[in-house]
């Protein structure tokens, strides 16, 4: 194989929301709801809402804070969703702007010009619109020739996007591909739902993937990759273009992300650990050769469980780095952001694994070796 991850780039919104701030807003909403519905609650017609807690969130998920495109809207108890100003069609769309910033960062770190790139893949949980493709808008803004397309595989969008780029380079279709993962997730989250209001954060990450001839001596050689999907309704959003034609039209709340967190946890962890070990054997790699696992970032306890099964032993934090404390769950971007932030200290020949998992279910593995 002669495909190399040349560089990565990151964009983060300016504003963050801590667990304490989020919980204070949620609990103010609960208090108001329970007061407004006191009679119905007393009659047993309406169920009282329970408060959220920072201690629960941190222990259950490892999340301490998250970036958001609009803090005021998220923390406004009468709104509890980010405020997004509509933009004229002539202006760069919000998610394209985030993606372009991450892509420019990746190009700059590689010392590459847009002219060096042949294709753009925009891969994320949700696209801002259906057409024209977000990737084509970003391609245009970056001044890249060639082609671009959008794709989506929920939390595995990042790795599946990478694997598409790797395949295109291996087949000779392109020499240099930008994979851009703009995950603007907070507008997809029901901030009034106690079970999930803390889960997501906004980010965009980009990865420049090149043929080894073009890449030169720097970067990460791809040693092997695999994709896997198994249908499950345990993480689902019914948001889609049919909503407006449905009678009755679904309520706003019914279009958000919903999950059976416990079931996801129980089903996904063994599935992913098995996949990693099977893939490793297939590519002639051994767990003891893996210096670091850059795992999907949904839940710290999931990562601990998967990493322990893969390593077959207790492990140090730096062997499976976690970015949840700062970023929360950033859907398809998580494992790529972990790689971006924590790929230091590798000698040539040392190996690691980028692995995503989540809704679908879906899971993707990309084994890499430092050049
Ligand atoms: N604050 C305080 N308590 C809460 C709470 C909150 N915000 N949300 C739930 N609880 C309570 C529940 O009521 C429950 O109480 P009970 O035991 O008295 O019934 C208890 O905490 C446990 O709830 P549960 O939903 O079972 O929590 P959990 O330990 O499974 O953690 C997740 C919840 C979502 C963090 C966890 O299931 C998870 O991360 N799953 C992985 C899936 C995932 O993150 N997917 C994202 C897409 S990839």
Could you explain the architecture of this structure?
With 371 residues, the protein is an alpha+beta fold. It is 34% helix and 22% strand. It has a 9-stranded mixed β-sheet with strand order 5-4-6-7-1-8-13-12-11, with helices on both faces. A two-stranded antiparallel ribbon has the order 2-3. Helix 6 (134-142) links the parallel strand 4 (119-123) and strand 5 (147-151). The protein is globular and about 70 Å long. The model has no long low-confidence stretch (mean pLDDT 96). The structure holds coenzyme A. Coenzyme A binds at residues 52-53, 56-57, 60-61, 155, 194-195, 235, 259, 261-262, 264-265, 298-299, 302, 329, 358-359. Residues 52-53, 56-57, 60-61, 155, 194-195, 235, 259, 261-262, 264-265, 298-299, 302, 329, 358-359 line the site of coenzyme A.
Please tag this protein with its features:
alpha+beta; globular; binds coenzyme A; 12 helices; two-stranded antiparallel ribbon; single chain
General shape: globular
**Approximately how much beta-strand content do the residues carry?**
15-25%
- For the biggest β-sheet, the strand order reads 5-4-6-7-1-8-13-12-11
Given as residue ranges, the uncertain stretches (5+ residues, pLDDT < 50) are: none
Q: Biggest sheet, open or closed, and with what strands and sense?
A: 9 strands, mixed
What's the end-to-end separation, in Å? Answer: 13 Å
Structural class: alpha+beta
